[in-house]
Amino acid sequence: MSKEKQVPQILSRRVVAQSRLMRVEAVDLKFSNGEQRQFERMKGSGRGAVMIVPCLDDETLLLIREYAAGVHDYQLGFPKGLIDAGETPEEAAQRELKEEVGYGSHQLEFLMELSLAPQFFSAKMSVFVARDLYPESLPGDEPEPLEKVTWRLDDMNNLLAQPDFSEARSVAALLMLLRNQGERR
């Protein structure tokens, strides 16, 4: 039986860098065994984010290809975005779906909440599957139109082999969808 760990005591924290999107904090910690260390962490807005796995039907997914500044290339993945102030995760998922792929969903189902690099980043992402889609668009904030890509679920091994389908959150969302569908059968 494992003993529950006591989280370290925060001795101090200070902002060491800041941009319009994030803040980097240096955090001085004291662990239960007396060891002291300084960690750096990125603090997000605290609102969280959403990712949506749109299903056009029981066999077909809808993905997007968009520019990813971190790797300076285009990446294939699922629609996603930040939760706006005052929105629930479900409302944000519906809005992002309409902005990024031009659909709303009559059947939005929560799959899981993901941590994003929890050693360094405090943000979490709620992942949803969207079924029973209907056409509805909202203006988005992307600098260019997003490429929509359909993919058959029975060809998921080829999707996983695509060099531009490498974002861990999208891969996790796909695997959670497949597990979820297996449980529904």
From TrEMBL:
UniProt family annotation: Belongs to the Nudix hydrolase family.
CDD domains referenced in this protein's UniProt entry, alphabetically: NUDIX_ADPRase_NudE (cd24156)
Short name of any one Pfam family annotated for the protein: NUDIX
A GO cellular component entry from the record: cytosol
Record keyword Hydrolase present: yes
Needed cofactors: Mg(2+)
PANTHER family documented for this protein: ADP COMPOUNDS HYDROLASE NUDE (PTHR11839:SF12), UDP/ADP-SUGAR PYROPHOSPHATASE (PTHR11839)
GO molecular function per UniProt: ADP-sugar diphosphatase activity
InterPro entries: Nudix_hydrolase, NUDIX_hydrolase-like_dom_sf, NUDIX_hydrolase_CS, NUDIX_hydrolase_dom
Domain Nudix hydrolase: 42-173
Identification of the protein by name: ADP compounds hydrolase NudE
Organism name: Idiomarina ramblicola
